Amino acid sequence: xxxxxxxxxxxxxxxxxxxxxxxxxxxxxxxxxxxxxxxxxxxxxxxxxxxxxxxxxxxxxxxxxxxxxxxxxxxxxxxxxxxxxxxxxxxxxxxxxxxxxxxxxx
Length: 106
Description:
Shape: flat
Helix content: over 70%
Strand content: under 5%
């Protein structure tokens, strides 16, 4: 019997996965309705949750001027660093290149 099992190929594993449907809009609507019903006797945690939900729903828009100024500062720092590295490279080449060539020729 064991001889016949050697030649038998194993079957693929099968799953019974049934995807569920999730309606995000319906869930948000239910949450908002619950908040309006319990607004009169709200705890501080519920108030925090309501505020965070508003930020998520409407989108918290940051100051675009702040972001652009940070980008400019970052670009300026990058440019200055790159310029310093280039200048340092030219100085090192000017001072030590001739000595390097002489050592190679020996």
